[in-house]
Amino acid sequence: GSDGTCKKSLARAIEKAKSWVDQGLVRYVAASTHSHVVGAVLAKEPDIDAIMLRYSMSHKDAAKAISFPAAVNNKKPVMAFTTTRWNALQRGHGDWNVGVETKSGEALPPTTGECLSYALASSPPVEIVLHSARDEEELFNAIGDFSINMSDVDLLKWEKYGDLDWNDDGFDEYPEEREQISVS
Length: 184
Known about the structure:
Structural class: alpha/beta
Strand content: 5-15%
Number of helices: 8
Number of strands: 4
């Protein structure tokens, strides 16, 4: 609900899932959402063990302002998905070379592994990153370029990359999220 509590139908669904844990049918109850407003509500639910949220270099503001604080405060691990923004981050951005200094003069976009690494390294509640590789080669490349420890320099570089205007599809932050971000 608007007061930060689950609606009755969702509360009943969580209660049902929790009964499966109590019966030994499942070990954990997790919930997934694209909405960080909903993620914050789910993080406060005692019978939810983990939450799965969209999070990437370009989908970070609502997560950091709304759902991640709730996850940290309620000790809920987060599984991050869409960490590559549907592979758009690896394709580059027209404004990325502007004002960026590199040895070669060209600012390369992140690799899939760097996208995954950023999601894991840049946020305390993210404990799992998900990637749906299309084939074995893509999986090998993602894992081969993955690093558990991303340098502060790389974190800052990818923060700036994510700060570019990616919202050509209106999906980066929902209207209610933008409203909450601008207030905080």
